[in-house]
Task: inverse folding
């Protein structure tokens, strides 16, 4: 897309950064009237920051309205004055991030002999000027509520409609109102804080995870937010870093955990000790004035040191199998491993069921002679043949800091800058020791992550009714992952297998060995790997007050550069089935794989831009009725590669299109979607002084697919080779353990051997239509009750399927002949055909902090449907069972629970100096009985839905990239009267599929729910008037309740229908903080 010079100039004058940038701020607005109710025009209104002593002034317009739209969260007073009237001043107001705090003032006639202190005509508890649903989590809640390992994003779960799957490993990946957990927009001081790394290397969805003690507060906007926000189709989580004030303040802290304080979990340790846990979190911050009333600073540092034990269980060859003896196998041994192997040279079984060692592959013999090759663990509690157990220790070392400067150039210009930095190293040992490693995924090894975030902004008061906010920002997340044995000798040197890949960027021990029925061993896949996204942001927003209209308009540009090395099998993968001998272990001993896979090493340099424009008019049509009207336009370029090294599978022609071909004329190979208009409309109607009705509708777009598949088109030939050669007894072995692959392996590739990927050339930006109808009622002082209906519909969501899935029948029984394009194998294809639906009743009860107590209770009753799973859902089905029948994929949404209730509280016990009881005790009594606080979070929810899977039936070859489901047994209910760990559902209700497509639907079984109490107690020890220590004790899952993980849900799997694992038992965390 070409951007005209005129448009560029307009960006330069009106904007510089993301539209979302200014909304670390809140707004104080209102109307000034005289005692009779008539509006006062050109009254001077002044807002006074009580923390900074900084003042700003404006004049009321011709309808008596005023607005301060860009104020930092904090404490303020508002004063109004006009000739002939006594000035009026508000009470102290607590402005939170994203608030629109109405403060109407009434002036009485008279001389200026004093001020009249008034309050807003509508209690600030009610949101009378906005239709947005959401919740502010204030600094006190962030610092005082119990948080395991001090991660503030856990508090997002206090918001109605929020759920989290504890089995996923992505921090901050929370589903809100049924939207995908990767559709949320994380902002830090108003700028983009989203990780743009594919597959989310760094294990989080955000770039920076600020320290709990650095966060001032954050707001979650969950539904119906205004046109100022966009870029993502889910919720907005806007976090603000603390800033300095006219007083020097600081905090120091140390939190720690130790397994000796933790309870034994329900998951058995097979007679071993509890896994090691050592957690130390320490840090300090300080803030204050550089120049009083003018320049302020805030600095925060935090360090994290962890050791976390992990118990691995795996299946390895039995002692007899390690000797080549297949006679008399244990009854519980896997069926394929029980078979007596046959000699592929004669077709006869090996005598006595033993493969003599002189027939073993020399390479296989060297592997088994390795001193650390895993053998079964001798343990009387383990009865499974070939069971292996090992406890390893993950280690984490992380450091981070934030620096923020606020400078008031004048009453008309407020400048700020912030820089945040984090650096962490995480080492996850593999299940097996040494070069045996053993990995079915890419989670093991060293992960080096460095995050950076910077922003500079200036808020300019152009005139009493116009304010301009300008910002530039930058984020970078460098995530480098290295396998455990990176830098070791090459696979060829270690095992003598010729022609294996080698080089300084590849060498990391053995290749990978997949043996059917056993746990994989050898090196980790998809490593080494790095993903380094750089995001550049510029924005500008102008705020105008025109009569009854509060208008905001602006634009932003986001430019994303990402360097990606993310390929699999760079050291080669040998796969052994029962192809040659009828037994996969027999095939291994003879060195005869069923398949060999190897991937070339290629780095992609992806690019894309996002351009946004918006206008928002909050029109106070009546004194008690505000309309929120907005329109947003978003344009995101498709991803392209710096050197045009993309190729795309074309469904129409069955060929690969290459972006380097001048005849194609499209470097992204995907057409631009320029139709992303996002209307927003809402209303806030103050029916009575204590009752507000609010409703909203809006369209929201998702411009970053964030499905771990953003790099699909860079993983195609000729730029990347991902080649799998299969073989069998019909012809001589192409690859053996002793010969290795051919030296020209990639040159031997046939199209059917090559993994191919594709994107729909008409790919759309996913969108979600959101709506709500909400009632807010002020029950009493500081108490608010809210109930509402919330709904949304997702359209054009990303989905993945095999675009070359074989047909059921064809002119030939061969797999290739039954494919739409016999010249290719499987084609992993992404399009935008996904849909979702969500409806919910949401209730919130909140008590703002007063009289030593605050309370927040959220309840959600929800139902959701979709036809595609989410990439990061561990229970999900990302691929369909049948790519030609997506209608059969409609089912319960895998990220939605039906019932969810969460309560949090902080209560300062009324004993001690300055409190209601024993307000003047002797020092010793106060030291023992005074200044205690209790706090906690209670969570109760039902479970997430599960799909009953099945291995593909025999002779049902239908290619890859599909989720195979079981068959339903007619007349047998899957329900049990008392679901428990031994039988969560009735396994007899399901059977192995006998045709390629099972009859059970998606997500038909509800998994276990969760009930947990996280409790905290704190004691303050006063040192001086300005300083004190606080000791904290926190118990997570305080009553050690058993919260089961999902049951085994694949027919034929061990323990099908039963549960073998649970979430952790009680954990204890202690902390000491010093405030001054």
Result:
């Amino acid at each position: 897309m070409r951007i005209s010079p005129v448009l560029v100039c307009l960006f330069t004058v009106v904007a510089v950064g993301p539209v979302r940038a200014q909304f670390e701020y809140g707004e104080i607005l209102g109307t000034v009237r005289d005692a009779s109710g008539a509006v006062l025009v050109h009254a001077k209104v002044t807002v006074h920051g009580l923390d900074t002593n900084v003042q700003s002034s404006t004049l009321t317009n011709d309808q008596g309205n005023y607005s301060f739209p860009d104020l930092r969260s904090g404490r303020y007073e508002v004063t109004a004055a006009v000739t002939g009237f006594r000035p009026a001043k508000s009470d102290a107001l607590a402005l939170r991030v994203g608030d629109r705090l109405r403060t109407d003032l009434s002036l009485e006639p008279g001389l200026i002999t004093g001020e009249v202190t008034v309050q807003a005509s509508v209690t600030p508890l009610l949101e009378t000027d906005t239709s947005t649903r959401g919740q502010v989590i204030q600094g006190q809640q962030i610092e005082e509520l119990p948080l395991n390992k001090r991660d503030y994003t856990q508090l997002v779960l206090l918001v109605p409609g929020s759920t989290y799957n504890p089995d996923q490993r992505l921090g901050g990946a929370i589903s809100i109102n049924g939207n995908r957990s990767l559709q949320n927009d994380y902002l830090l001081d108003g700028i983009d804080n989203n990780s743009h790394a594919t597959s989310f290397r760094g294990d989080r969805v955000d770039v920076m995870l600020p320290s709990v003690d650095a966060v001032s507060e954050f707001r979650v906007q969950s539904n119906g937010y205004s046109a100022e926000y966009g870029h993502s189709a889910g919720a907005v989580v806007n976090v603000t870093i603390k800033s300095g004030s006219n007083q020097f303040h600081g905090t120091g802290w140390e939190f720690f955990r130790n397994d000796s304080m933790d309870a034994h979990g329900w998951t058995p340790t097979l007679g071993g000790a509890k896994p090691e846990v050592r957690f130390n979190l320490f840090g300090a911050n300080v803030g204050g004035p550089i120049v009083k009333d003018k320049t302020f600073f805030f600095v925060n540092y935090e360090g994290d040191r962890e050791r976390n034990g992990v118990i691995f269980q795996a299946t390895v060859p039995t002692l007899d199998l390690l000797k080549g003896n297949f006679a008399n196998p244990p009854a519980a041994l896997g069926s394929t491993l029980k078979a007596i192997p046959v000699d592929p040279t004669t077709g006869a079984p090996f005598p006595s069921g033993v493969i003599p060692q002189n027939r073993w592959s020399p390479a296989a013999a060297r592997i088994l002679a390795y001193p650390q090759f895993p053998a079964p663990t001798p343990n009387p509690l383990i009865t499974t043949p070939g069971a292996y157990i090992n406890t390893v220790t993950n280690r984490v070392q992380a450091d981070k800091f934030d620096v923020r400067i606020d400078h008031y150039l004048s009453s008309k210009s407020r400048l700020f800058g912030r820089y945040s930095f984090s650096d962490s190293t995480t080492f996850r040992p593999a299940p097996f020791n040494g070069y045996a490693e053993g990995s079915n995924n890419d989670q093991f090894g060293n992960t080096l992550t460095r995050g950076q975030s910077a922003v500079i902004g200036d808020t300019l008061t152009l005139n009493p009714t116009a304010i301009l906010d300008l910002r530039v920002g930058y984020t970078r997340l460098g995530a480098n992952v290295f396998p455990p044995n990176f830098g070791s000798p090459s696979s060829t040197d270690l095992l003598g297998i010729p022609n294996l890949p080698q080089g300084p960027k590849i060498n990391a021990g053995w290749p990978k060995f997949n043996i059917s029925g056993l746990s994989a061993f050898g090196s980790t896949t998809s490593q080494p790997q790095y993903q380094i996204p750089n995001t550049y942001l510029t924005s500008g927003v102008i705020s105008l007050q025109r009569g009854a209209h509060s208008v905001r308009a602006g634009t932003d540009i986001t430019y994303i550069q990402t360097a990606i090395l993310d390929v699999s099998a760079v050291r080669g993968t040998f796969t052994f089935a029962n192809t040659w001998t009828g037994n996969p272990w027999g095939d291994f001993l003879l060195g005869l794989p069923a398949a060999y896979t190897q991937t070339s090493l290629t780095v992609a340099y992806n690019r894309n831009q996002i351009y946004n424009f918006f206008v928002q008019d909050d029109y106070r049509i009546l004194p008690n009725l505000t309309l929120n009207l907005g329109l947003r336009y978003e344009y995101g370029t498709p991803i392209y590669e710096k050197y045009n090294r993309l190729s795309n599978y074309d469904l129409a022609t069955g060929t690969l299109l290459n972006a380097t071909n001048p005849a194609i004329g499209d470097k992204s190979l995907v057409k631009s979607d320029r139709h992303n208009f996002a209307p927003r409309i809402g209303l806030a109607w103050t029916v009575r002084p204590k009752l507000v009705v609010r409703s909203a509708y809006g369209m929201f777009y998702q411009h970053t697919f964030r499905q771990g598949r953003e790099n699909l088109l860079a993983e195609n030939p000729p730029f990347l080779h991902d080649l799998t050669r299969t073989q069998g007894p019909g012809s001589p072995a192409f690859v053996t353990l002793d010969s290795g692959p051919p030296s020209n392996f990639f040159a031997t590739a046939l199209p059917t051997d090559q993994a191919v990927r594709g994107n729909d050339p008409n790919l759309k930006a996913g969108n979600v239509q959101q709506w709500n109808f909400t009632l807010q009622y002020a029950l009493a002082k500081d108490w608010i009750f809210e109930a509402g209906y919330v709904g949304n519909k997702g359209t054009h969501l990303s989905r993945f399927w095999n675009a070359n899935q074989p047909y059921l029948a064809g002119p030939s029984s061969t797999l290739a002949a039954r494919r739409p394009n016999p010249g290719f194998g499987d084609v992993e294809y992404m399009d935008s055909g996904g849909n979702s639906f969500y409806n919910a009743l949401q209730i919130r009860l909140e008590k703002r902090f007063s009289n030593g107590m605050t309370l927040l209770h959220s309840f959600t009753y929800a139902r959701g449907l979709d036809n595609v799973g989410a990439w990061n859902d561990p229970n999900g089905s990302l691929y369909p069972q049948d790519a030609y029948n997506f209608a059969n994929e409609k089912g319960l949404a895998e990220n939605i629970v039906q019932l969810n209730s969460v309560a949090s509280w902080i209560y300062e016990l009324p004993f001690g100096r300055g409190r209601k009881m024993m307000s003047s005790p002797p020092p010793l009594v106060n030291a023992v009985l005074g200044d205690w606080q209790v706090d906690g979070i209670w969570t109760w929810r039902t479970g997430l839905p599960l799909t009953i899977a099945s291995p593909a039936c025999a002779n049902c070859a239908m290619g890859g990239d599909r989720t195979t489901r079981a068959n339903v047994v007619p007349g047998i209910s899957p329900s049990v009267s008392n679901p428990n760990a031994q039988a969560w559902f009735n396994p007899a209700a399901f059977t192995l599929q006998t045709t390629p497509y099972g009859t059970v639907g998606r997500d038909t079984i509800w998994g276990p729910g969760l009930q947990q109490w996280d409790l905290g107690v704190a004691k303050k020890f006063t040192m001086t008037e300005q300083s004190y220590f606080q000791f904290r004790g926190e118990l997570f899952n305080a009553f050690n309740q058993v919260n089961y993980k999902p049951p085994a849900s694949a027919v034929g799997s061990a323990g099908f229908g039963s549960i073998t694992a649970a979430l952790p038992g009680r954990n204890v965390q202690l902390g000491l903080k010093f405030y001054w």
Q: What stands out?
A: The longest strand covers residues 387-410. The mean pLDDT is 89.
